[in-house]
User: Fold these one by one.
Assistant:
Number 1:
Amino acid sequence: MANTKEIKVPDIGDFESVDVIEVMVSEGDKVEKETALITLETDKAAMDVPSPYAGTIKSLKVSTDDKVSQGDVIAIIEEAEEAAAEAPEEEGKEEQKAEKSAEEEKPEPKKEDTGQPKQQEAPAKQKPAPRRAPSPGELPPIDEKTFGQAHAGPSVRKFARELGVDLGRVEGSGRKNRITHEDVKDFVKRMLQGGGGAGGALPSIPTVDFARFGEVERKPLSRIKKISGPRVHASWVNLPHVTQHDDADITAMESVRKALKPEAEAHGAKLTPLAFLIKACVAALKEYPDFNSSLDSDGETLIYKKYFHIGFAVDTDGGLVVPVIRNADQKNLIEIAAELGELSDKARKGKLTANDMQGGCFSISSLGSIGGTYFTPIINAPEVAILGVSRSSVKPVFQDGQFVPRTILPLSLSYDHRVIDGASAARFTRFLAETLETMKGLIF
Ligand code: CAO
């Protein structure tokens, strides 16, 4: 007869309402005793909750982002028959507490402590192996220091060790950039496909003792830079970037913008060229849907998005963030200008939520308020293109046999050459410039 049991959150010390940051099993999964079921995170530590029984998960009672406390039911399990014959170990045996910060945690003791949460593993004490470039298809060696510092739960660490993956090199896609099992699998896939750079590994940059040459000061990177850096790097090394430059004559658009500014102000919005650019990009994405796609992870399928969510880069004290204007196709210029203002303000106050920065189809990086003439923006992967906008200036343009002063806006479109051909990029950028010139479909 089926022997079903409730699996409950064991003693997790003094913590209440702890975040579930990863659920590693699904209903119907067969699990062994000690298989990690979920990862919990307090503000001090992360811990896995292992299954106290072997059997089949009949129903799951928690999902990622839930909050749980001791005694809450995690899952109902149907115990495997041979295991059911044995007496299960007592649940909730008090032994460990999530008490120290992740850095201070001790490695998991090697004893049978069924049902107790497993805390984050401390870096193994080992002499660092000299770094050498791995051969194509080979995984780079584990750097114990960065492995120890990586933001991952104990079961992910164990999994990474089994596969020989250096967690310090894996980008986390979980909450607060935590590395998940899927991230480790994706990393291995990429490395085996030679996607980790030239032949699977990047040549390293020499370490220099700068203090030998003069006074120096060390400052940690900002939190945002620590997160955005690996993303920008991943895009740069994985996507073949090409940048197409063009100019848009925005003389007429600037007159219209100035005329509309008071109306925008009456709605509490500041009307800058960026609102026009967002509308023009939506029109171009509709005309050239390849630019509103993403390459599936199989590398062989394009996923076309039927919605138009446009990200825009905001320069904040902590670094670059990219909030997203959702359904930009359904908003008019003034609504877009108002949302630009609200999201930029939130970004600068560090108040953007993860939701504010998700779901983008295409991004714009505008350096127009600062200056410059053309640059090569890095694509916000897995998007396939990004528009860089520089500062407009009045230039002499030869028209009808004479030079006339026109306001010219420099545009720079970087695109993923695996998905987009140069001719399409030139057409897209031209369409964009002409839309800004004619303002077709931009004004209300
Ligand atoms: N040409 C000329 N003037 C421009 C312009 C352009 N392309 N773009 C903006 N301006 C003007 C605006 O019209 C405004 O002037 P007025 O007040 O006279 O109208 C002034 O520059 C300031 O604009 P703004 O910065 O307040 O507003 P915005 O909509 O242009 O930009 C935002 C908002 C959030 C994109 C911008 O503030 C920002 O952070 N830009 C930096 C983005 C960045 O760092 N990109 C690099 C990413 S890669 O590292």
Number 2:
Amino acid sequence: MLLLLLAGCSGQHEDVHETRFMMGTLVEFTVSDCDKQEAQKAIARASRAMARIEQRFTIYGDGDNAVKRFNRTPVGTAVTLPKDVAQLLMLARKVQRASDGAFDPALGALNRLWGFSREPAPTRPPAKAQIRAAKHAPGCLIHTRKGQWLRRSDNCQLDFGGIAKGYALDRGIAALKRAGIRNAIINAGGDMRIIGSHHGKPWRIGIRHPRKSGQVLGYLALNGPMSIVTSGDYERFFIYQGRRYHHILDPASGMPAHKAQSATVLHPSASVADAWSTALFVLGPKGLARLQQLRMPALVVDTQGALHMNAAMRALFHPMR
Ligand code: AMP
Ligand code: MG
């Protein structure tokens, strides 16, 4: 009887923690109420699933994938994208439309020019003429009636950097669930998806202060399934002539967006939360109303450091005193 209680994912167990480095960040897995060996096996599967997503969607590094191939196809050539890529692109386009273009999955040429995902990291902004040349016209990416995709200009390049980490979190959690896990968190550098609860209580999630490292603005007590994703200007940036330049670009100007220090969005799907956190960062505080209409709790720290949230977030947020 005792053995039955101890094996598997039920009954009282210590939390199991594992960390892996991927997607350019430390990914922490926490599995609750599960036998240690089973939890570790499940985490190994989940991290393999997440590493595959990274390889499949990245436009950086040496390996090849369908996204890079699409970005190399001659302008005007219709391409059938693999199902998973096409599906994530459809979601990205939905957020693009709903955010009035603040989220843009075809920003690859501009992102590459700024170079925040490059090693070594850049130290000064590109020239204005280069930015103008890398900016694509609106509607450069076409979805044909046959369901194929084509690029209308060469600087129209897919980049899933604003959504793929969320998608990897979704796939990681799906792998944990397939392995029988019911209560867990995967935390990818502050972006997380949770399932279930923590020993019968809600998970306690801190929201990072964008300027005070190691401090939180407040916390949320949440039961899964839920994802909490933050976009911030402190993640990848450089200071040049006293100004901060960071990796989240305003598609309208081709420059780093300048209406927020950080933006946090909650949604059960981490892909959705990820795309919207990037969009909300670009939109700034005025984007909160849109997220309220969509029933997504959200908050923004503006450039002055003031905290703004929508009603859905206010109902959940416990400020730090
Ligand atoms: P995140 O940290 O999720 O906000 O994503 C930032 C990453 O998304 C950048 O490193 C770029 O690869 C990409 N990105 C930057 N600006 C945008 C944008 N306006 N829309 C979509 N993706 C973007
Ligand atoms: Mg994002």
